Structure to design on (180 residues):
């Protein structure tokens, strides 16, 4: 359902419907309807196709948005909220979520970049926390573990990152606030 409601899909469908209506109106000699629908329909259709060709869907969310709403409102840091908001929306013109952040951290491979698979919210010591599952692809685990201390600080003050191995070529990255 999420793929159907992407902005690229909606514009493609809207543009194709307007183009078909305009073409039918042109064929039935209705110039008042055919001219605007064809002139608007074709560019909207092409714009939708352009968006569709470069879209990156939101990351799979393992917890319902409302499940940790109260904890999120009460204890989440600005960095955690930005991170969550960034990965659960449609992105365009990027190969992977968090592309610019991973490039800055030198955790990026141009040919086979790490891919964010899912995000999960959870309670860590009565504080809001995020767990990101990342498929590492061409970036070695040792590079990630070498930057474990820096990851939390990079995404916001007061955050710590905890890396957990999750299979041969995957990691879980937990972003949480240290317990007092």
């Amino acid at each position: 359902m999420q793929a159907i409601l992407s902005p690229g899909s909606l514009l493609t469908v809207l543009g194709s419907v307007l183009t078909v209506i305009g073409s039918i109106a042109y064929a039935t000699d209705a110039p008042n309807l055919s001219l605007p629908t064809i002139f608007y329909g074709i560019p909207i259709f092409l714009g939708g196709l352009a968006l569709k060709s470069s879209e990156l869907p939101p990351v799979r969310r393992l917890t319902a948005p409302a499940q940790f709403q109260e904890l999120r409102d009460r204890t989440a840091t600005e960095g955690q909220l930005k991170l969550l908001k960034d990965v659960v929306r449609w992105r365009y013109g990027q190969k992977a979520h968090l592309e610019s952040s991973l490039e800055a951290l030198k955790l990026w491979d141009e040919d086979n970049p790490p891919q964010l698979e899912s995000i999960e919210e959870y309670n860590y010591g009565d504080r809001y926390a995020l767990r990101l599952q990342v498929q590492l692809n061409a970036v070695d685990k040792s590079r990630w573990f070498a930057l474990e201390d820096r990851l939390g600080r990079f995404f916001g003050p007061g955050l710590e990152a905890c890396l957990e191995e999750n299979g041969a070529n995957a990691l879980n990255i937990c972003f949480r606030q240290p317990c007092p």
The mean pLDDT is 89.
